[in-house]
Amino acid sequence: MARLRIDELESGMVVARDVCDRSGRLLLSAGSPLQERHLTVFRTWGVYTVDISTPEELPGPSQTIPLDPELWAEVEPGVAHRFRNTDRSNPAINVLFELSVQRLAQRQLQRKTDGVS
């Protein structure tokens, strides 16, 4: 992870941590690719640096990051509710479901690590 100033950022870079304004309002979620409009929003809300994922940190298409089973069990019901009207036997839907659980779990873990409730 690298912390870069706004003028060093480029479209397509991937945000390593949630980007929030001074009051804690979420401006862009971790894992999102940057677009030019995001840089304008950051400047407007007084964000001067952003944590960016380095290529080594980005999971490839077949890579998964192991999660604690307890954390998985904690977030899975909320994601399952969002996927309630889908066919989970469809391989593509199932992959999306698992990625959604994984991303939500990682965000919760990051918030716990950062001391945010």
Notes on the protein architecture:
With 117 residues, the chain is an alpha+beta fold. The chain folds into 2 domains: 2-57, Alpha-Beta Complex (Molybdopterin biosynthesis moea protein, domain 2), CATH 3.90.105; 69-114. Helix content is 40%, strand content 11%. Helix 2 crosses helix 3.
As laid out across the biggest beta sheet, the strand order is 1-4
Percent of residues in helices comes to: 40-55%
The total tally of domains equals 2
- The best one-word shape is elongated
Enumerate the spans where pLDDT stays under 50 for 5 or more consecutive residues: none
Q: Approximately how much beta-strand content do the residues carry?
A: 5-15%
The CATH topology name of the largest domain reads: Molybdopterin biosynthesis moea protein, domain 2
**Strand runs, count:** 4
Elements, N to C (H/E): EEEHEHH
Keywords, separated by commas or semicolons:
2 domains; two-stranded antiparallel ribbon
Topology:
Elements: E1 2-5, E2 19-20, E3 26-28, H1 36-44, E4 49-52, H2 69-82, H3 91-114
Antiparallel strand pairs: 1-4, 2-3
Helix pairs in contact: 2-3
Quick take:
This protein is an alpha+beta fold. The protein has 3 helices and 4 strands.
